[in-house]
Predict the structure.
Amino acid sequence: MKITVWIEVGSDDGKIVESLYKSLKPDNRGFPPGIRFTEQLKSNKLVYSVEADEKSLKSLRNTIDDLLESLETVERVLLGEED
């Protein structure tokens, strides 16, 4: 059994989406065994796919948590928001 999670991030401002993509790209490698990660930049949308086998569910959850935290951090910086 495999589980796949898709995360799509979009904006009317393509520059923000492209900046998110470029900011996170260096971190999106070196995943644990059992995790398959892909990313695509499509005009104003960034699409992530994270796939795990049944033995890697905890790693899948941790990978998704890390990705969401990183997206939130970069978004705050790009939009000039503070906590």
